[in-house]
Structures are given as C-alpha cells and as structure tokens.
Amino acid sequence: MRAFISILSVLLCLQLNSFAQYPAPALIPQPVEMKTGKATDNFTIANQRTQVFISDSSLRPSAEFFINFVKKHYFLELTLTTLADANRKNVINLIQESPASMALAKTPDNPERYKLDVLNVAVTIRSPSPAGVFYGIQTLIQLLPPSAKPLPLQAKAVSITDYPRFAYRGMHLDVSRHFFNVDFVKKYIDYLAMHKLNYFHWHLTDDHGWRIEIKKYPRLTTVGAWRDGSIIGLYPGKGNDGIRHGGYYTQAEVKEVIKYAADRYITIIPEIEMPGHSMAVLAAYPELSTTPKLPKKVAETWGIFNKFNNVLLPSEQTFNFMEDVLTEVMALFPSPYIHIGGDECSKIWWKQSAFSQQLIKEKGLKDENGLQSYFIHRIEKFVNSKGKTIIGWDEILDGGLAPNAIVMSWRGEKGGIAAAKQKHKVIMTPENFMYFNHSQFLKEDSLTASRYVPLANVYNYEPVPAILTSAEAKYIWGAQGNLWTEYITNPANVEYMLFPRLDALSEVLWSPKSKRSFPDFQKRLKQQLRRYDFMGIRYSKKYAL
C-alpha cells in the first residue's frame, strides 16, 4: 500500500504542474487554497466503470456517502474497491495518509485537513483522518453540476488544499417546541455534513416537551412528551389551538441517529435542561418542584413567565433524579460533552421556597444566583465523574462558573468574553447573529420569531471578539447556529429558515477570515441555490431574484 501511495503521489505531482488559474468553481465554504484546471482536465464519472478506491476500511463511510449520493441524484452506479492499482484509470482514490506524509505535502498540522486533486484520469482525496477525507468528498460533490443532465457527469478539474479555521462548527435543533421524527433528524444531519459542520446540538428537553426515553422514569415520556395545545400565532397568541402535540425518541432510535451522525463525522451533543425550562419534567414528577402539591402541565405557551414556569427544587431527591437521567443519557451518547442548559431559570420560585432559602443559608451562598451556581457545580461534579464535560448557556456564569464548564454565549458576547478570560472554552452563538429562528427579511413569508437576522449578519459575524488578547482568543472553540422551533412546525419550515444562512455559517467557521467576502459569497451562492433546487431543498425564492 505504501508503494502504491508513493507512485500515486509522483504521478499527481507530474500532472498537477500544468494547473493554472482558470475560472474557479463556486464552492461553499471557500477552501483555503485552490488551483483550477482546463475543461479538458475534468474527470468523467462513468456508470459502473468508475471505481471508488479506499486505502483503509475506516474510509468506507465516506466512499458509501459519495456512491449513494451519485446514485440518488445522478442515477449512476459506482463500485467500491479496496484493491490498490496505480495503473487504474477512471478512479476516485480515497487515501488516509500519515501526518508526516501530509507535512511533506506542505499542508498544515490540522487533523481535519485534506488535499483534493481532480484530473481527467483520477480523483484523489488524501487526509491524515477519515473526517478529512469526508470533507474532501463534500467538496467533490460541489464540483459536480447541479443537474442530472446533460451526461456525461463530470467533476471540474481542481487542486485544493483545505482545512477548517475552527475546531467546533455547530448547529442546533430544538425538538421540544415541535417534534421532528427520526427520518427528518437524519436529513438535518446530512445538511450539516454537506456544510462541513461537525457538532449537532440536539435540544431534547424543555418546558414544552421531553423527547428522550428514560427507562427509569417512564412518565417523562408518557406525560412529559405531550402537551394539550399550543398558542396560535405570535406570542401572546390569539388563543390556543387545543391540538395535542408531542412525541419522543426511543433509546433504540437515539442510537440509530448517533450512528448515522458518526458516519458523517458529526458528534451529537444532547441537551437536558436544568434547573429551569423544566415544566415537562414537573408535569410528570411535580414532587421535584418548589410547589409539589400543586398540579403542573407541559407548557402550552412560549417564553419564560414567572407565574407559570416553576423550576427544579435543589433537593437531594432532585439531584438523585437528575443523576439517574444523566446516567442513561451518558450511556447512550459517546459524546464527551453533555449540555445541561442552565439558562432562564425563574429564580422567583427559589425566593418563595423555604427549603431553597434554608439551603442558601446552610451553604453560605450569597443569593439565588449562588444557588444556581451550586446546582450547576453539583451536576458538573457528577458528569465529570463519568468522564464527561458539561456545556451550559452563559447564565452558568452567574454566581460563579463551574471549574471545567464550557460556555455557550447567547446573550451577546459578554458571557463568552468573560469565560475566555477565565480560561474556559467558549462557543459563540449570540442571538443577534446566530439565531436562525428570527426572520431573514423585514417582511417574512411565514410566521417567525420577532427579531431580524438577515443573511449578511450571519456571514459578517466574527466569532473571536477583538477585545480578547491572542492568548485569550485561543479559548474561542468555535461558534454555532441555533434553530428554536416555537414557530417552526414542520420540516419545510425548518429548511426555509435554515437555508441559506447555514451556508453563511459554514464559511464563517471553516474558511480563513482573510478569504471571506460577502459580495463574492453572494455570487457563489447562486450555484448553491441551483443545487438546492436539484436536491429538492426548500429556501426562500427571494434569494434567487
């Protein structure tokens, strides 16, 4: 195999010397470095005759992803081979190389880097990791025409060296406000994979529904997964529709989705909200609330309202319950990270709770913010004991940040800046740039949350605040887009709100800052929108004007 790779490298070097700067393909995200060849250098994909070679069994998911994509959209059957042959023509080579070999090719030391060369006789994607090869596949797909005709199918000739700017490139989906089935969650994961994102933040629990099976506490899904109605229209709404809504994922389904994401090199981070956003829990187990004798129900209106949104009582019974829940969740998800929420806790309930006030005194806490910090510290200690790390919204800074916590900064950048200065990892997701549930246009085609987050705002966002020193800036792990679903009721709505802001997000997180240009992005986006038409992906036609 080493001899084959060496021969292949020599042949590539000889052929790539003829590359010049012809018109570049419209790629999103923009690669680090790209040289283009002539149309005569394009690679032709031929039905059954084109083979996909993998140098290692770990590359099979990437090969199968490409083979299945070509079959689904271009109706061509490619064959997979593990037999090395330097003389083979019309082949797509997927090769995992040693980091030392990649260093000799003058590619930077980034585990997700890849080198893609398209010539008329062969396509070669090389990387030190299976993930890097997979990202090369996503680029190769964009080199194909966004149409099944005319044939023959050709990939444009290029030589690309590429790697991501940020290690964390995330997208979120709220399935509590509105539930989406497994098939659509898989499709959503495919969308993230297409854009070279590597983390999927799965918001599984909230006031409006509990969406994951917990075997020890079945009422979480028999009761907590269902609400008896939802408000009509924008909050405060025009009444209640009275339609029962809900659903949940069995543990078997969760495992299925995790495997699907792993084959696309995406880590799923589950979110289990606490100590606020817990009405679905309290509807099922009211004894965990500050008012255990009062009946509770799963929330039917959006937002946080002190009158209705009770919170978890910080009792030993509650901590035992949450540890049991997290034990099952952590056994399911291989992710080293567990998101525990920590945001928008209505502390008025703790102020009115004799138990909570006594606990504040016993623990020598300053106030209810200190009690929240105590709660998060307790949970973090348990999660850390299982070898995992917690992520929380920036409210976990209130009262003192847990020692090993990662902060997701949503209320602007202030929380992220504070966490970075305390040497904690930060994921930037400020609402005015990264919340895709807000409207894309001043006049929207459908009901959305009330703020305005146009495509340009997403694209022009810079995740590393200028106020940070170079040493502090290293704690900015990356950024994430969020999609909350109060007003997003079906898959078509999800796609409409996601695209093409997801394209902008991908370029912010992947491409070098120096290469980003919104006018140039808009030009390249036209080709991407044609691809979405080809793939049947919904987006606002205002972008096509």
Structure commentary:
There is one protein chain. With 545 residues, the protein is an alpha/beta fold. It folds into two domains: 2-162, Chitobiase, domain 2 (2-Layer Sandwich); 168-544, TIM Barrel (Alpha-Beta Barrel). The protein contains 19 helices and 23 strands. The chain has an eight-stranded parallel beta barrel with strand order 10-11-16-17-18-19-20-23, surrounded by five helices. Strand 12 (205-206) and strand 13 (209-210) form a beta hairpin. It is elongated, with a radius of gyration of 25 Å. The model has no long low-confidence stretch (mean pLDDT 93).
Care to give the gist of this entry?
With 545 residues, the chain is α/β, with parallel strands linked by helices. Helix content is 35%, strand content 18%.
